[in-house]
Design a protein that fits this description.
The chain has 399 residues and is α/β, with parallel strands linked by helices. It has one domain: 3-Layer(aba) Sandwich (Rossmann fold), CATH 3.40.50.1820. It has a nine-stranded mixed beta sheet with strand order 1-2-3-5-4-6-7-8-9. Helix 4 links the parallel strand 4 and strand 5. The longest helix is centred in the C-terminal third of the chain and has 17 residues. The protein starts with a strand and ends in a 37-residue tail after the last helix.
């Protein structure tokens, strides 16, 4: 394990500035309202900010305030932050980032946690400085095994995990792995979908049908899933040569909640800049490719997670459906709902997320699995309405 400092060479910053200066935007679609994808109006605003106002050195200074390290595990270079609490009773906590995303997902969250947690924030292989990728086959399951090795190597005999998106999948895989001393997984999404089984919609309520509608909307705009799962290296050729193209490709930061995202322009540009400087658009996209093949090889079977689990549902995110989540995870002891925030809650609502992490990891492991946790703030029920198309079987992976 060696100490590491994030320091992008000035020549790389100069090259980015020149590319941004010479950006050629696409011809705008009629209406330029986002129907066809990222609108030019948003790109123009992002370009002006990135070119004229964004300060990468300030980002470096902020993130280098925490200790960074490099190590090698399973033949792969792994980058991580390790921030130990001064509290001797602190809980070791692994934070696993999203796709698209990086360890920067947690830049607003770390300081809110260190009174109660020893915080470890790794970059998954292929993300940020956990490069180059030396082998094929990096799935969330393999990353879970790798990160368990990391936590053991840091001397932690027990720990918990939090994640969103890719991080939520890694968290569930750690639950399935159930290593000795595992304290549970806290996730923003329980990626559990209709299976096609008779009667599985009978007990669904109005909020569940709204969640199904959101799934259908996401499928209608999730073309990046298909491209990454089939030709990630091809699309990466364009992303790796065009900064504004890479920013547009990462539109999920801004539109995951169909226009409700609270991710700010500085946060978006920082994330995209990190991906640009590390030239990782190809390797981060391969996770869809590898996971799609792993799911196919398993015949689509979904194993049941018996480990302790908590789910925090932010209003404008993919909404987990409790009955499906309980089917795939039979030890959900904590279920909380928040009135706003979304897929990137660590960036959007860090205070709320930090509070929920404390609630979950302080709660008794014997808490009833039959009722949502006391932190639930769900809205009042209304009559079930008929929604066309809800019986279609969803894909097995949404990240």
């Amino acid at each position: 394990m060696t100490e590491f400092t994030v320091q992008v060479p000035q020549s790389e910053l100069d090259d980015l500035a020149e590319r941004l200066r010479r950006t050629r935007l696409p011809q705008p679609a009629p209406g330029d309202d986002g129907t066809y994808g990222m609108p030019n109006s948003v790109l123009e605003e992002a370009l002006a900010y990135w070119r004229d106002d964004f300060d990468w050195r300030a980002v470096e200074q902020r993130i280098n305030a925490w200790p960074h390290f490099l190590t090698e595990l399973d033949g792969q270079r792994v980058h991580f932050l390790h921030v130990r609490s001064e509290n001797p009773d602190a809980t070791p906590l692994l934070l696993v980032h999203s796709y698209p995303g990086s360890f920067l997902d947690f830049i607003e969250l770390i300081d809110l946690l260190t009174d109660d947690f020893h915080v470890v924030v790794p970059s998954a292989p292929g993300f940020a400085f956990s490069t180059p990728v030396t082998e094929r086959g990096w799935t969330p399951k393999r990353v879970a095994v790798l990160f368990d090795q990391l936590m053991r190597g840091l001397g932690y005999e027990s720990y918990g995990v939090h994640g969103s998106d890719l991080g939520a999948m890694v968290g569930r895989e750690l639950g399935l792995l159930s290593p000795t001393g595992f304290l549970g997984s806290h996730v923003l999404q329980a990626f559990s979908f209709p299976s096609g089984a008779p009667g599985e919609f009978d007990a669904l309520g109005p909020k569940d049908y709204e969640a199904l509608e959101f799934m259908q909307w996401f499928q209608s705009v999730g073309g990046y899933n298909a491209l990454n799962a089939s030709r990630p290296q091809t699309v990466a050729a364009a992303l790796s040569d065009s900064p504004i193209g890479q920013l547009a490709w990462n539109e999920l930061f801004l539109n995951f909640g169909n226009g409700t995202s609270l991710v700010t322009l500085p946060q978006l540009v920082a994330e995209v800049s990190l991906e640009w400087f590390t030239n990782t658009s190809a390797s981060v996209g391969r996770y869809h490719f590898e996971e799609a093949r792993a799911v196919a090889a398993a015949g689509g079977e979904v194993p049941v997670n018996h480990s302790r689990m908590g789910v925090a549902v932010f209003h404008d995110d993919f909404t987990s459906i409790r009955s499906f989540a309980d089917r795939d995870n039979d030890n959900i002891v904590h279920w909380s709902e928040f009135p706003d925030g979304g897929h990137y809650a660590a960036l959007e609502r860090p205070e709320a997320l930090a509070g929920d992490l404390r609630a979950f990891f302080r709660a008794s492991a014997t808490q009833s699995t039959a009722q949502p946790a006391a932190t639930s703030a769900s809205s009042a029920s209304t009559d079930v309405s008929s929604i066309s198309g809800v019986n279609s079987v969803m894909t097995s992976s949404a990240f």
